Amino acid sequence: MIIQKTTQPRIHNFDPKNFTFGNDFIDHMLICEYENGKWGEPKIMPYGPLGFTPAMMGINYGQACFEGMKAYKDKNGDVFLFRPEKNFKRINKSAKRLAMPEISEEIFMEGLKALVDIDRDWVPYGEGTSLYLRPLIFATEEALKARIATKYMFAIVATPVKNYYSEPISVKIADYYSRSASGGVGSAKAAGNYAAAFYPTKLANEEGYEQIIWTDDNTHEYFEESGTMNVFVRINDTIYTPPVSEKILDGVTRDSFIQLAKHNNIEVKDEPISVKLVLEAHSKGELKEVWGVGTAVVTNVFKALGYKDKKYNLPDLKEEESFSLKLKKQLVGIQTNEAEDPFGWRIKVEKKY
Ligand code: COI
């Protein structure tokens, strides 16, 4: 790995008490180029613009996928990654689905650890804070024939973050637009999945909803995801979450919530959830909580569901009554080294560079 450290660090201009999600970038980034059928040597270099033209295939035909993951700092200043092997596997699953070359475990893991190590001072410490890491792969070839590109870049950039959405939000259950389709790219973290969601989300925003609960493209009768998150529903004391499929992202936070819930002896049903089931439970007073989970948000509690022209308010549970907040607290405790990690999820970033 080539390491070229910056001579003009910006860390001293960064105010850890005053920043917003995803707007400040750490001093370095990792890049690695693919051509002639193989990945080259990864390079950590000062963060900054790269030279591409508008004829770059990735921005014309959308061969681009990414990951979202975080590094956390504990009270001793040690830095940890959370289940990074899941993101490594998933970026390759996404790359494969988009006909892009897979990245090696060595480039992904060693590159990630070295970048976080070099910029460890950028990992904020304090409640709800972390360093958000964005590995991505995109086609860099300059050509306009619609075909599989031959040149790519793997990059990792990172930004200090705080809670993504802090307040409970209202969400609209989709009855027309879809996030994914059978045989499509829903289970890949394809950049285009996010682009395609922006317009329906804008329409939902105009109706007073912050996000959408995506439903299946065929009947719109079953929950799939919510916004950029996986979705959970609690009916009485059972938690439901739609099973991962080719249409639903295999979320790392989703999997962690399921394992934590089981660890707490909470019944989890990883099975299709119909809109009908949820609204019937609401009318019987059995719908206790609905929430989204994802790396960026960790958990976002929903305060109301909108369906067709009706709004269904959800109970405002106290922290001690809420499964979502209890599981979130346990998860963040593990991520930030405040709690035991019975699952072996936390990986310490050793000081090497
Ligand atoms: C994540 O939770 O990492 C996501 O993918 C959301 C992101 C689009 C901000």
UniProtKB/TrEMBL annotation:
<dbReference type="InterPro" id="IPR036038">
    <property type="entry name" value="Aminotransferase-like"/>
</dbReference>
<dbReference type="GO" id="GO:0052655">
    <property type="term" value="F:L-valine-2-oxoglutarate transaminase activity"/>
</dbReference>
<dbReference type="GO" id="GO:0008652">
    <property type="term" value="P:amino acid biosynthetic process"/>
</dbReference>
<keyword id="KW-0028">Amino-acid biosynthesis</keyword>
<keyword id="KW-0808">Transferase</keyword>
<dbReference type="InterPro" id="IPR043132">
    <property type="entry name" value="BCAT-like_C"/>
</dbReference>
<dbReference type="InterPro" id="IPR043131">
    <property type="entry name" value="BCAT-like_N"/>
</dbReference>
<dbReference type="InterPro" id="IPR018300">
    <property type="entry name" value="Aminotrans_IV_CS"/>
</dbReference>
<dbReference type="Pfam" id="PF01063">
    <property type="entry name" value="Aminotran_4"/>
</dbReference>
<protein>
    <recommendedName>
        <fullName>Branched-chain-amino-acid aminotransferase</fullName>
        <ecNumber>2.6.1.42</ecNumber>
    </recommendedName>
</protein>
<keyword id="KW-0663">Pyridoxal phosphate</keyword>
<dbReference type="InterPro" id="IPR005786">
    <property type="entry name" value="B_amino_transII"/>
</dbReference>
<dbReference type="GO" id="GO:0009082">
    <property type="term" value="P:branched-chain amino acid biosynthetic process"/>
</dbReference>
<dbReference type="GO" id="GO:0052656">
    <property type="term" value="F:L-isoleucine-2-oxoglutarate transaminase activity"/>
</dbReference>
<comment type="similarity">
    <text>Belongs to the class-IV pyridoxal-phosphate-dependent aminotransferase family.</text>
</comment>
<dbReference type="GO" id="GO:0052654">
    <property type="term" value="F:L-leucine-2-oxoglutarate transaminase activity"/>
</dbReference>
<feature type="modified residue" description="N6-(pyridoxal phosphate)lysine">
    <location>
        <position position="189"/>
    </location>
</feature>
<dbReference type="InterPro" id="IPR001544">
    <property type="entry name" value="Aminotrans_IV"/>
</dbReference>
<keyword id="KW-0032">Aminotransferase</keyword>
<keyword id="KW-0100">Branched-chain amino acid biosynthesis</keyword>
